[in-house]
Structures are given as C-alpha cells and as structure tokens.
C-alpha cells in the first residue's frame, strides 16, 4: 500500500476521498491550513498552506502519491490554483512522487476565469518534471445544488450541465492512486446532460424550491457555457443522476 498526501483533504472531494483511501489500506496524510476536523483512523493531519508554501515540503517527504485537490473558486483563485499548484508540484518533483491533479472538463477550451486558472495549473503540473496525472471531472452535484439553492442565478438560452457524484469521482481518483501515471486521464462526467432549467425543476420537485433563473445573452465566457464546452458527452461514466442524489439526501 502507498503513503498518500491529499491537499484539500477537508473539502467537498477530500472528505470523501480520504476515508476511501484509508479503507483501501493506504497511509493517508491530509494537508490543511487549519486544524482538521475529525479524520478517520489511518489519516494523519499535516499543517500547511499551498498559498504560502508553508508545510508542503515536509508533508510531501516520504509520500508515494500526492493528490492535489486544494481549490478556491471564489477567493484567491490564481494564488491557490496556479501558484499553489506550482509550490506543490515543485515539492513533488524533488521527491519523484506521483502527482495527481484534480481539474475540470473543458478548461482547455473555456474562458471562464476559474477554468482558465485550472488550465494554467494543469500546465504547471505537466512541466513540473514529476510523474503526473490530471483527472478532469464535470460539476459535482453539491455545486449544482448550491447554485440552485440561492435566490437567483443566471442562465443562457441553452445552458447545460453534466452533474456528477463526488463519490464516483473519488472512486476514480482512488483507482488512479493505485495505478501508474497517465498524464491526461480520460474525462469523468455525470450520467446525464441536462438544461439548467430542467435541473432547477428537479430541485423544486424534490426540495420545494429552486433559484429563479435570470436569462442573459451568451456573451464572453457565458458563450462557452452556451456552447457546452464544459460537457463530455462521450464520457458519461457516472451512474448517479442529480435526482437520485437529491433523493438520497
């Protein structure tokens, strides 16, 4: 079994991935800026911050695999995604460990600023000198639910999303941890591609409310969402639909 360091191990993906890796018999380290909440037996907290570099080198030493899942879509985006990835990648390259970076489908063809930062981070990983794998996934159910749980959200005329269960992405990552570096792995998408209005109607039917969707023209990066550049119709690998996810919660 391997020693695996997970950055972002207390986030939406990390909270699912860490116990899965532990259950698979790995020794897991969890890098966190703050005191980590209760971790499963077999997981060890490591203090560190990808934005400053504090604690990264010490956490990486002795790790066979580093899953870089730390992300910040709303604040300090480039500091976290690009510069943070640069710090992690440099530490990993110095040890020869396998670096796995969690990215998003479509970042290589999308102008949304967060996606562009993720693409720049991918390029950092590719040029780091470390053995690497990049896994791109579509939007987590949790994100879709947060979007539709607000008061309002914008939509272009044909905005579609491909929600995927974080549990299924975590299982794919766990497989990659136990395999050889793949460079760019196959995309991992949810089982259905749905118009945002359909997803809102589903949430309203199950939870009784959904955000009001405000129509806007497909301008700038919104035209990339309109064109479906965040979708991977040939990789509908997930099995849990948004409706099923809502029902289970």
What attributes characterize this protein structure?
249 residues; alpha/beta; Rossmann fold; seven-stranded parallel β-sheet; two-stranded parallel sheet; 37% helix; globular
Query: What top-tier CATH class fits best?
Result: Alpha Beta
Oligomer classification: single chain
Helix content: 25-40%
**Regions with pLDDT < 50 over 5+ consecutive residues?**
none
Instruction: Classify the beta-strand content into a percent band.
Output: 15-25%
Distance between the termini: 33 Å
| Total discrete domains | 1
Tally of individual helices: 9
Examine the coordinates and then state which fold CATH places here, giving the name of the CATH topology.
Answer: Rossmann fold
- Please tally the β strands and state the result: 11
- Approximate shape: globular
Rounded mean pLDDT score: 95
* Widest beta sheet: strand line-up: 3-2-1-4-5-6-9
Radius of gyration: 18 Å
Secondary-structure class = alpha/beta
- How do the SSEs run, as a string of H and E? EHEEHEHEHEHEEHEEHEHH
Q: How does CATH name the architecture?
A: 3-Layer(aba) Sandwich
Tell me the major beta sheet.
7 strands, parallel
CATH superfamily caption: NAD(P)-binding Rossmann-like Domain
């Amino acid at each position: 079994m391997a020693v695996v360091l997970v950055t972002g191990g207390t986030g939406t993906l990390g909270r699912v991935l860490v116990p899965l890796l532990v259950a698979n018999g790995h020794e897991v380290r969890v890098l966190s800026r703050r005191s980590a909440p209760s971790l499963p037996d077999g997981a060890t907290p490591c203090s560190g911050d990808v934005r400053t570099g504090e604690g990264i080198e010490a956490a990486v030493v002795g790790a066979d695999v580093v899953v870089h899942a730390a992300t910040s879509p709303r604040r300090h985006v480039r500091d976290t995604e690009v510069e943070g990835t640069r710090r992690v990648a440099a530490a990993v390259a110095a040890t020869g460990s396998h670096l796995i970076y969690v990215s998003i489908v479509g970042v290589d063809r999308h102008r949304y600023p967060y996606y562009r930062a993720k693409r720049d981070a991918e390029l950092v990983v590719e040029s780091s000198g470390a053995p690497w794998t990049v896994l791109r996934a579509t939007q987590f159910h949790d994100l879709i639910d947060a979007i539709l749980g607000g008061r309002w959200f914008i939509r272009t005329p044909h905005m579609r999303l491909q929600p995927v269960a974080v549990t299924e992405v975590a299982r794919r990552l766990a497989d990659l941890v136990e395999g050889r570096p793949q460079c760019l792995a196959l995309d991992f998408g949810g089982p259905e591609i749905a118009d945002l209005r359909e997803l809102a109607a589903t949430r309203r039917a199950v939870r009784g409310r959904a955000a009001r969707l405000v129509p806007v023209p497909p301008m700038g990066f919104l035209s990339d969402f309109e064109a479906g550049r965040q979708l991977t119709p040939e990789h509908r690998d997930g099995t849990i639909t948004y409706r099923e996810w809502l029902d289970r919660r």
